[in-house]
Give the backbone structure.
Amino acid sequence: MAYPRVARNAGRTAGAWPGDRERTCSFRSDSAAPFTDYRIVSRGHLNRTRPDQTAAALPAGAVRREVDRHRGGVATRVSDAVAEEIPVAFVYNERPHAVMLATPADYEDFALGFSPSEAIIGSAAEFERVDVAPALAGVELRITIPEHRAALLDSRVRQLTGRTGCGLCGAQTLEAAVRHPPPVAEPLPIDAAALQRALGALKQRQTINVATGATHAAGWAREDGTVEIVREDVGRHNALDKLFGAMLRTARTFVPASSS
């Protein structure tokens, strides 16, 4: 089945969050064909899910929406799977720090991975607890860390919501935006066949992406290419933070497979 390849003037009208959003877009299959408008009502991304996928149960992070699909000049109302995206607020010791747009899944891993990757804590041992608190507009991750660490956040206030495609949104200085991690002391050679094996397995483990075609993934594998942990999100850096948190939570270390 051929899908439209050329788009123009995509627009969107938003309802009251966290309700649905309506998109109106125009597509054509090639440069000579006329444009055809369609309307999609969703809280996520447009997807080309097969009918057999929409009939199955969806993983956390994917939702089902009714959409108008145009094929050959005929409009059909169908059920489609889309990737979900909500605001996730990070609150440290009752101090609001950042709001990220993310897939609503693996919150504990997200909180634990985000905290050291943003240099908010020095190690997982300083991560005392997290409470996931649903709110009207999204979710709050209420995180408790040592008070001296939380006090340092007062000088790192972010001014913007973090979009799914950007991990630097709202950083006020170059030092806050670009932090250099310590170099790897002893790099471990990875066999090319093991790497390819891990890449193939990583794709198969992306359950949200299989359903929606709209999420990134990060995975870690053993040296032989056996994938152990996979996390998905609409944002690549979110997926990596969730993976990092899952690894810290299970206190395991693996050879990296890939992030996509």
About this structure: Residues 192-259 form a domain with the Cytidine Deaminase; domain 2 fold (CATH 3.40.140.10). The first strand starts at residue 6 and ends at 14. The radius of gyration is 21 Å. The helical segments are 51-54, 107-117, 147-152, 174-177, 192-204, 207-212, 236-250.
